[in-house]
Specification:
The chain contains 20 helices and no strands. The protein is an all-alpha fold and 405 residues long.
Length: 405
């Protein structure tokens, strides 16, 4: 009897260990379309017996989505060959279905991965679908870019963002990151920038910040990325307290990375906008103490001195900024300070003598001639005056130089 009980117990254990798929999973695996399988999975997810079953169900969605994509892509490729070589005929295909299906395939694969790497009843992790999904999907990441362009052309920025953000996110997702890391992704930062741009169009400001931060790691895109991030932030600042709260965020970011010139510039801009003069001056002086050749700090110091009509300090600061970088705005500001300094000297000399002596004119004229030189440099750097309005000041210089003769 004891032997019989042991045999019966072993039979029960074996039945449990090798139990087949649950009825819910079986129904999902029999589905013929993505919509049917997805509906069954959503309604029956809690009825699936284990993470392994859930992974298997989501993998079925990957199968069905890829099947639709492959069929539509095959027609699109055949059409390209027909148009290019004049062989075969052009057939209708569903572009929306093609790009929607590749999105669904990636989404389902990520869900599959989530359950696929969960430990089993014995605490062991044995992914059943990871390698397969990486192999069959990683090459299709490029189609997420193609889809983003397709939707951009249609001004559908919601779907354009969906595909491009998926491309960027897949770069570091647990499913793909190991494979993607094998070769440099030359499209990553560019697609991140456009994802930020489309998020801005959709007024999805949190995602603007997320993808702009990725894009700004590319030196070529850094300024544009910061500009769009700043625009998104400005759109969310409704009160002065919002702005002050954001200052704290920027201060923290800058403290963590003092070499980040873009964050430093944003911090100075918001200090200026909020009238936080002491904080602005402290930030500038601290930067110059650490980096005496910092262009941004010298330029801002010059602008502050100019606004305070401290022209000597402004002139010195702008000249120090120009040693680091030629900029038409700084050139124009510097010329304006020289003009104002000359004008103030004219007022003083005229008041004393009832008019300017030739000696006074000879003393003042070099200020206007120096200003003219800087304005001519601004003209050469910015002939269309897209950055600075130098033309009026240049006319003023020429007039004053003539009056000093």
């Amino acid at each position: 009897m004891k032997k019989l009980m042991i045999v019966a117990l072993m039979a029960i254990v074996a039945t449990t260990a090798f139990a087949g798929d649950s009825p819910t999973l079986k129904s999902i695996l029999k589905a013929k379309t993505y919509a049917e399988a997805e509906s069954l999975l959503k309604s029956g997810l809690s009825q699936l017996a284990s993470p392994a079953e859930k992974a298997k169900a989501y993998n079925k969605l990957v199968d069905l989505a890829l099947d639709t994509f492959t069929k539509q892509q095959a027609v699109a490729t055949s059409n390209q060959m027909a148009e290019q070589y004049g062989q075969g005929k052009v057939e209708q295909y569903d572009t929306l279905a093609m790009y929607n299906s590749i999105v669904k395939a990636f989404q389902a694969a990520e869900e599959c991965e989530k359950y696929d790497v969960m430990p089993d009843a014995k605490g062991k992790v044995k992914p059943a679908f990871h390698a397969k999904n990486v192999q069959r999907l990683v090459g299709h990441r490029a189609h997420l870019i193609n889809g983003g362009i397709f939707y951009q052309d249609k001004h559908d920025y919601t779907n354009a963002f969906k595909l491009l953000s998926m491309y960027v996110d897949s770069h570091d997702s647990p499913l793909f990151k190991e494979e993607v890391a094998k070769t440099p992704d030359e499209n990553l930062t560019n697609m991140a920038y456009y994802a930020a741009l489309f998020a801005y169009q959709n007024k999805d400001y949190d995602n603007v910040k997320k993808y702009a931060n990725i894009a700004k790691t590319d030196e070529k895109l850094a300024q544009d990325a910061v500009n769009i991030k700043n625009a998104a932030i400005q759109a969310t600042l409704q009160t002065r307290q919002d702005s002050i709260n954001y200052v704290k965020v920027l201060e923290q970011e800058y403290a963590e990375n003092p070499a980040d010139e873009l964050t430093f510039g944003m911090l100075l801009n918001i200090y200026t906008g909020l009238g936080m003069v002491n904080e602005l001056n402290t930030a500038v002086e601290n930067k110059l103490a650490a980096d005496p050749n910092n262009y941004t700090a010298w330029a801002v110091k010059g602008q502050n001195a100019m606004n305070a009509q401290n022209f000597d300090e402004a002139i010195t600061s702008f000249k120090n900024a120009l040693k680091q970088q030629e900029n038409p705005v700084v050139l124009t500001f510097l010329a304006a300070c020289l003009l104002d300094k000359g004008g103030a000297a004219e007022d003083r000399q005229s008041g004393k003598a009832g008019g300017l002596t030739q000696a006074a004119k000879d003393q003042i004229r070099p200020l206007y001639e120096e200003a003219k030189g800087y304005l001519e440099r601004a003209q050469a750097a910015d002939p269309d005056q897209t950055q600075s309005r130098w033309s009026y000041l240049l006319e003023t210089c020429n007039y004053r130089i003539e009056s000093m003769k």
